[in-house]
Amino acid sequence: MDKDKNALHTYLDEIGQQRLLTDEEERQLADRIQAGDQRATDRLVSANLTFVVAMARQYQDRGLPAEDLISEGNIGMLRAAARFDGRQGKRFVAFAAPYIRQAMEQAVEQQGGLYRVPRNVADTRLEKKRSHPLSIDAPVGGSQELSLGRIIADADAPDPDRQLEQGTLLAELQQLVARLEPRERQVVERFYGLGTSHLTMAEIGREMGLKRERVRQIRDKAVRRVCRLTRSTELRDYLKQ
């Protein structure tokens, strides 16, 4: 078990070092993929593997180990890469999300085993997770864009009217969070609702046994680190609100 955990941690560290792609790089890779360039497929998928990890967290109580969910999600992402048209104005992770989700859900159905959480209970939990902020499931006005939805009212919470166009900022935030220290990652995931329920500063403090002000300090430090890692001005502006 420890060996498996160490292998998973090593994998997460490795994929966390991958540089994010620009819109233009994704378009160029998509063209090369359509021409049969396997290296382009590898590059596109490798740059977005942390997004699969973020999605796997939504299925963590469905009976499969994290490494199995991630493996199945990666297969789904490969399928998406073969069909991706970078000139349709949609980022790859937004396009790939349904393929990743389908692969994980099929794996849960086929491999979940005798000890998985009952389907009705697991589905209820999953629906609750999908209904929270930073869900990639809610379309805006019938367009290709993806919405943050509403963030639970809190004086410290991000602006609930802020929308992340085409899931780009959501995808970048989920990827960059994987590079944070464990405690920083926990605070950011709870505060922004990444793969879990959005919590206020006070609620995070109670969960972690910390004072509210200490939670704020950890979040602010994590935000500064993310801002140094990203090239996205929009993501920096969103996090600094």
UniProtKB/TrEMBL annotation:
Q: Give the RNA polymerase sigma-70 region 1.2 domain ranges.
A: 7-38
Sorted UniProt keywords: DNA-binding, Sigma factor, Transcription, Transcription regulation
Molecular-function GO term, any one: DNA binding
> Biological process GO terms, please?
DNA-templated transcription initiation
The record ties this protein, via PANTHER family, to: RNA POLYMERASE SIGMA FACTOR RPO, RNA POLYMERASE SIGMA FACTOR SIGD, CHLOROPLASTIC
Gene name of this polypeptide: sigA
Query: From which organism does this entry originate?
Result: Prevotella dentalis (strain ATCC 49559 / DSM 3688 / JCM 13448 / NCTC 12043 / ES 2772)
State the superkingdom: Bacteria
NCBIfam families in the record: sigma70-ECF
Q: What name has this protein been given in UniProt?
A: RNA polymerase sigma factor, sigma-70 family
Question: Which Pfam families does this chain map to?
Answer: Sigma70_r1_2, Sigma70_r2, Sigma70_r4
The opening ranks of the lineage are: Bacteria, Pseudomonadati, Bacteroidota, Bacteroidia, Bacteroidales
InterPro entries assigned: RNA_pol_sigma-70_dom (IPR014284), RNA_pol_sigma70 (IPR000943), RNA_pol_sigma70_r1_2 (IPR009042), RNA_pol_sigma70_r2 (IPR007627), RNA_pol_sigma70_r4 (IPR007630), RNA_pol_sigma_r2 (IPR013325), RNA_pol_sigma_r3/r4-like (IPR013324), Sigma-70_RNA_pol_init_factors (IPR050239)
> Where is the RNA polymerase sigma-70 region domain positioned along the sequence?
44-111, 178-226
In the UniProt record, does the keyword Iron occur? Answer: no
